[in-house]
Amino acid sequence: MEIERKFLIEKMPEDLERFPHAEIIQAYLNTEPVLRIRKYGDDYIFTYKGSGLMVREEYNLPLTKEAFEHLLPKADGKIIQKVRYRIPLEGYGDLVGELDIFTLPKPLTMIEVEFPDEKTARGFVAPAWFGEEVTDNPAYHNSRMI
Q: What domain count does the chain have?
């Protein structure tokens, strides 16, 4: 189960390069339900995501590089490229913000925070540098941005 909230960015964190980051290429074989392949740094992953906005089913399976490269053309150009920065959220326990800077299909900066449960997610008060919340706007699902 994936429990996350998404926000646009009001102000970028200073010295962004000091945080762990990796390039992500993800391609969509289907969007309802979501069937996605992803290259995240040196890892390759096949993902199924069910319906929903803040809470939805998610299953991840490892892929080989060869399987990823075989499936990539089957996405028919439905590809997203972004760099993800993992930013610990000071004062929020173990919560981490995943700041994505998209280059494809269009420039966009967004941050996602994953939560251990719905109660924590609903009680979360975003830091001041976060911008507008877009969790409930399906247009900000990566699978809808292609």
A: 1
